[in-house]
């Protein structure tokens, strides 16, 4: 497959189970190796061993990840230090996002002790604090967040895109992808099955088209 992504773009990646969505994200993040081809970052070949390359992106797995023992705020601060340097000040809107995500009550609780959805939100806050150029998010809409969390996620991602961040996420839900992405990429059979912007498309028509690509017959017809 051959794809390029631009700053400020929100891309939803779809595909049946095993199509290669997570593998694609892992390769873009430099976490997985590849047998053939290359990943280029602003024209430069991505080198998995270069910290400055890896710091430009973050891969968030579906189950999230965090630093054991750290509380919600400390965890976010660790991500910020690792990605932006020890001198970097945390974003000034940290409290606002704690509130929007519904995390104020657990701001000083160890992430280990949080519920699955709360833990995922804590990691999203950390991603916001790390603020890499490229956000690679695996299955955010299946990570156990409540409706408020998903709304906050959309706002967080839109704000990041407005700052020029490129966001690529995977999902199994055509409806969510059609309504929350600037572009949709469907992978499968070792290639790209569909790659198109959402701006011009009628959402219902797009959802039907995605349903066909993903082998859904009936429910969306
Ligand atoms: N470590 C691995 N070693 C060998 N094959 C793997 C490995 N990880 C994934 N695969 C294979 O690569 C293919 C793509 O897997 P991947 O996890 O990228 O799919 P996906 O589209 O994210 O699927 P899902 O929707 O189920 O999460 C699958 O056939 C899987 O079995």
SSE blueprint:
Blueprint: E1 10-14, H1 21-28, E2 40-41, E3 44-45, H2 51-54, E4 57-60, H3 72-84, H4 94-100, H5 116-130, E5 134-137, H6 147-162, E6 166-170, H7 174-179, E7 183-188, E8 191-197, H8 203-213
Parallel strand pairs: 1-6, 1-7, 4-5, 5-6
Antiparallel strand pairs: 2-3, 7-8
Helix pairs in contact: 3-5, 5-6
The protein binds adenosine-5'-triphosphate.
Domain ABC transporter: 1-214
Keywords: ATP-binding, Nodulation, Nucleotide-binding, Transport
GO molecular function: ATP binding
General description of the model:
This protein is of the alpha/beta class and 221 residues long. It has one domain: 3-Layer(aba) Sandwich (Rossmann fold). Strands 4-5-6-1-7-8 form a six-stranded mixed sheet, sandwiched between helices. It starts with 9 loop residues before the first strand and ends in an 8-residue tail after the last helix. Adenosine-5'-triphosphate (ATP) binds next to helix 1. Belongs to the ABC transporter superfamily. It comes from Luteolibacter flavescens. Keywords: ATP-binding, Nodulation, Nucleotide-binding, Transport. GO terms for molecular function: ATP binding. This is ABC transporter ATP-binding protein.
Query: How do the helices and strands follow one another from N- to C-terminus?
Result: EHEEHEHHHEHEHEEH
Strand order of the largest sheet: 4-5-6-1-7-8
What ligands does this structure carry?
adenosine-5'-triphosphate
Would you tell me which CATH topology applies? Answer: Rossmann fold
- Strand content of the residues, in percent? 15-25%
